[in-house]
Amino acid sequence: MTGNEVEHTEDGRYIVVRGRRWRATDPSIPDTLRSELVSALMTGRRLVRTEGDAARVMVHDAKVALGERGAPWWEPTEEGTRDRLAATIRTLVRSRGEGSICPSDAARTVGGDRWRELMGTARQVALDLRAHGVVAITQRGEVVSGTEVRGPIRIVAADALDFRPPTDGTAEPG
Predict the structure, then answer these.
(1) What is the pLDDT of residues 80-91, one digit of tens each?
(2) CA–CA dist 123, 117 (Å, integer)
(3) In this predicted model, what pLDDT tens digit does every residue of 12-43 receive, in sequence order?
């Protein structure tokens, strides 16, 4: 084994570091998204010293998105999939700052080859996060409200738009 290789268990589900098993990253995550999630994880780890619990949330979300925490990626459950989609959306919108993500970014991260099957769930998770003031949903650059959003959407960090969720459960720009 060379310096950059990591020892995996035979089933590929764990890595072994100094004799200790750790859950491996989901191998079905596309390389570009995996790189972005690992970068977000490392940013969070660097910030733990100065930002404390706020950075620990970033680390946790990135590890869940990568499949290293939460429900095992090789035995997906409905709740585990929704949790992982939410963590992926939160991590990617943090990573992109004022940029946006498509629900397919989260679906591709969590779903592997079956990502298209997760598009409806990814959109619903984004709407749930919007209801909690975490993200905003846009179409053609404009913030949209309501739960019956049709057509392509983008997801942005709520604070990137001075966004606040209204008390009636719909979302409007602040």
Answers:
(1) 999 999 999 999
(2) 11
(3) 999 999 989 999 999 999 999 999 999 999 99
> What's the half-sphere exposure (Cβ side, CA atoms, 13 Å) at 42?
6
How does 83-108 read in b/e, with b if 16+ C-beta sit within 10 Å?
A: bbbbbbbbbbbbbbeeebbbbbbbbb
pTM above the 0.85 mark? yes
Cβ neighbors of 11 (< 8 A, separation 6 or more) are none
CA distance 21 to 41: 19
Question: What is the CATH T-level fold of the domain 7-173, as seen in this structure?
Answer: Arc Repressor Mutant, subunit A (1.10.10)
- Please give the Cα distance from 63 to 37 (Å, whole number): 8
- Report the distance separating Cα 8 and Cα 74, nearest Å: 15
Residue pointed to by tokens 């780890």: 45
Q: What are the structural domain ranges in the chain? A: 7-173
How distant, in Å, are the alpha carbons of 84, 86, 89, 134, 168 from that of 127? 15, 10, 11, 10, 14
The DSSP output letter for 19 is: T
Whether the Cβ atoms of residue 137 and residue 144 lie closer than 8 Å to each other: yes
Do the beta carbons of residue 127 and residue 82 sit within 8 Å? no
